[in-house]
Amino acid sequence: MSEDDFPARFVKYTLMHKDIPLIDLILEDGTGSIAKADIMYNEEHMPLGTVNNGEVNLYRLSKWWKSRSIPASRENLESFLNSLDIPCPEALLTKSMGLSLSDQYWVRPSGSDVSWASVNFFENDFSEDIGNLIFGHPTSSKPDLLSPDNTSDGIMLKKWKIIDGKRYLLKSTPDALHREVYNEVIASILCKALGIPHVEYRLMVDSYQIASACEDFISTSTEYVPAFYLLGQPEDSDTSDLYTRYVDSCRNVGVDIVPFLDGMIVLDYIIENYDRHFRNFGLIRDADTLEYLGPAPIFDTGSSLRSKDPIEYFNDAKHCCKPFKDTFDEQLELVSSFDWIDFDRLYGSLDEIAQLLSGTIIEKNDLLDSILGLLELNMTKLEEFVSSR
After folding, report:
1. Of 48, 63, 172, 344, which is least packed with CB atoms within 10 Å of its CB?
2. Residue 1: band (very low, low, confident or very high) from pLDDT cuts 50, 70, 90
């Protein structure tokens, strides 16, 4: 079938990795979904896990493409899509050529000679219209859809913003207490006390809305590869020992991930992070050479400290654990060494956290003592566990 024979609802694009053509795709115009994968030009740079024995796996490629869109679990998603008259999040992808601030993949319209340098969001300006709409503060009756917010993952409200030439991700929530927002900053304080690599979050007010803000940890020369893809689609296969499989997968690409996992597991134990899934931790690789450089820093820690529990049940509830075991105590058994923990420094971080939350809506709703008490309890339990080994 020639391009002129396509039904009007289908559009041809080429999936690109920076300026390297990878494969021709036929996308459905209304939904943005992949209808057909055509000629493959470069197998080496294809998204991880989408090629088997030299052949494109259309199911996995489609799944990878869809995973770039705003997830169905995003807060207020339906009203956001309705305001744009867009049927599904995937339909937004082609409005910004699938460009992201997490990697260097994008789609180029057939017949176009546009270059990656002229369109990527790391070096070029982008619209904040979508982000403002996501945050519930529309700034235009006809939003400009050229935005990295079309490819932002996660449940919390998110928007990208350029501040002093740097790309920052702002995260907020419709919840009046904004507990997830504060949790991001609390986790940064704890990571610093533990001495583990992390994304630095700070509080920011944007459009009269409180948010956590962090600088992008990816650049024009690097990209983030979630653990999900390094594991080879974990939900499609045996999940009995994902920890060992992930350690082996990282070792196979030249990365000793064990020290990083030690830190991540300890942090998640302290804050009771109930959403450490296989897409919010992983590795960073060189986007040009494809060499794996090491673990991505700790990020995305808002779903912790029992943030979804009603205040009156805060001290009673306890969430299940992720990603390797069902309970935090079981997962702690995976840690290879605790010698790196300075418990004096760790306990000392409670003062900084108390100062952070003092005078905020958290304290005004009588949550401050509960949060500090939970953190101190888990630190004490951790210290007792270490002493018993």
Report:
1. 344
2. very low
